[in-house]
Amino acid sequence: MKIAIIGGGIGGMTLALSLHDAGLTDVDVYESAHTISELGVGINVLPHAVRELAELGLLGGLSAAGIPTGELVFYSKHGQRIWGEPRGRAAGYNWPQFSIHRGELLKVLHQAVADRLRRTHRRELFRAPPQAVAARLGQIRVHTGHHLVRFGQEDGKVWGEFVDRAGKASARRVEAALLVACDGVHSVVRQQLYPDEGPPKWNGITMWRGVTEGNPFLSGRTMLMAGYFQRRVVVYPISKRHEDQGQALINWVAEFKVADDQPMPPQDWAHTARLEDALAPFASFTFDFLDVPALMRQAETIYQYPMVDRDPLPSWDSGRVTLLGDAAHPMYPVGSNGASQAIIDARVLARELAIQPSIEHAVAAYDAARRPATAAVVQANRKVGPEQCMEIVEQRAPDGFTNLDEVISQQELEDISRSYKRTAGFDPDILNNRPSLSIA
Predict the structure, then answer these.
(1) What pLDDT does residue 155 have?
(2) Other residues' Cβ atoms within 10 Å of the Cβ of residue 298
(3) 225 closest CA partner among 440, 18, 417
(4) How far is residue 159's CA from residue 151's CA, in Å, rounded to a whole number?
(5) Side by side, which strands form the sheet with 172-176?
(6) pLDDT interval class at 138 (50, 70, 90)
(7) Hey, CA dihedral for 133, 138, 140, 145, is it positive or negative?
(8) Strands 42-45 and 98-101
(9) Are 335 and 386 in contact (CB under 8 A)?
(10) Which of 235, 277, 348, 376 lies 20 to 30 angstroms, CA to CA, from 120?
C-alpha cells in the first residue's frame, strides 16, 4: 500500500512514523519547502499527544530538547492570580507535558522518519541487484521542493501533480493508494475538495510571537497566561539546554483584538512585525514575577499572524483521499491543542489503515473517530476553552479584586478545567486507562 503524505510538518512526520509503526512502510512525504524547518517559536505538546510520541520511541528526544511543563497558571491583566494547576506527571498523568521549540520537535520527528525509513528500505533491498541498492539506499522518502498543485482519483488509485515553486524542477506526477493532506490551514487538497469554502475565518485578533533568552520565572517550568482573550499573553520556557545552564529560553505570544476597521495581517508565519506595534497593548503588563514588555524588547525577531480557524467540515472521507491536522481542523490556539490533535489524528489513521479490510473502510473509520472529536475542540476553543476563567474575571471584576472567591468560586474554576480536558481528550483518568493505539 503506497501512501503519499502531503506536508512535512508535525502532522505529516508523525503520520509517517505511525504508519511505519503499524507495519505500513511504503510511505513518501512531499513537502513544499526546500528544507524541513519551523519558525523559532514554541509549542506545547499535551500528555495525550506525548503518550503517542512516547509509544513511537521519541520520549528521549523530547526530554533532551524540551521542558516538562510543571504547572499552568492564569492571571488577570492586573497580575492577580486566578487559577493554577499542575501539569504532566505532577497532575497524575503517566506521561509528561512538554513545552518545546517547534523546530526541535520537528527535528526529533524528521530524524526518526529518515532513520526508520532508511533502515526499512535497506532490509527491502538486501536481496536486490547491487545497482538497485546503490540507486535507492541513499534516498530518504521525504521529498522537499514538492508543492502539490492538483490531485485526482481513478482506477482505484489517487494521483498528485507537484511543482517546485522555486522553479528548479518541472512538474512531477505521483500515484499512490492513499493521499493524506497534512498541508495546513491553506491546504491545497481541502481547497480542491471544498472549493466554495473561502478563506480562513479571522476573529480580529492579531498575534505577535517571539523567543527571548532570560532568567527563569515562577517555578522555572511554568506556562503562564495573563489578561483575557482579546488582550492576553502566553509565556513559557522551551529549552532544556538553557535550563541546564541556569537560564531560560522563553517563548511568548501576545494577542490583541484590533479595531473592526483594521485589515487582517498577512497569513504568513514568517511575516515579521515592528516592536512598537506589539508592545503598545501590553505596556502595562509589568508584573512582579514577569516583565512582559522587557521580554518583547529583548526578542531578536517578532512574528505577526492573524488568529484564524475554519468551520468544521461535513466529511473528511473522500475515498482514497483524507485530511489531517490543520488541513482538517484548524483551530484557535487555545488550550495548547493544535499540534496535539494532529498527532492523535496520525495515530488513529495509521491504526485504522492497519486493521480495516480496505483503505475506504479505514478512511471512513478515521473520519468517524476524529472528525466529531476535533469539531468539538474547534467549537470549545471559539468559546475560549480553559481560559474562560480569565474572561469571567475580566467581566465581573475589570478593575481587579481583593477576594477572588467573591468573583468566581473554586468549584467553577475546577469545572472549567475538567470540562475542557474531557472535550479535548486528555482527562487524566480516561487517558491513563484507555488502550494503546499501537498495533504491536
Answers:
(1) 87
(2) 14
(3) 417
(4) 5
(5) 147-154, 157-163, 172-176
(6) very low
(7) negative
(8) antiparallel
(9) yes
(10) 348
Euclidean distance between CA atoms 377 and 355, whole angstroms: 27
What value does the CA radius of gyration of the chain take, rounded to a whole number of Å? 22
Q: What is the pLDDT of residue 124?
A: 55
**Cell numbers linked to 286:** 509589568
Question: Is 161's pLDDT higher than 70?
Answer: yes
Report the candidate in 408, 379, 404 with the shortest Cα–Cα distance to residue 392.
Answer: 408
Measured between alpha carbons, how far is 38 from 368 in angstroms, rounded to an integer? 31
C-beta separation of 254 from 229 below 8 A: no
DSSP string across 320-379: SEEE-GGGT----S-TT-HHHHHHHHHHHHHHHHHHSSSHHHHHHHHHHHHHHHHHHHHH
Is 370 a residue whose pLDDT tops 80?
A: yes
Contacts from 297-300 at CB under 8 Å and sequence distance 24+? Answer: 298/212, 298/213, 298/214, 299/210, 299/211, 299/212, 299/252, 300/210, 300/211
> The C-alpha cell of 154 is what?
481513478
String of b and e for 30-50 (b: at least 16 CB within 10 Å)? bbbeeebebebbbbbbbbbbb
* 8 A C-beta contact, residue 303 and residue 273: yes
Residue with cell 541487484: 129
Side chain identity, residue 245: Q
What's the grid cell of residue 275? 516592536
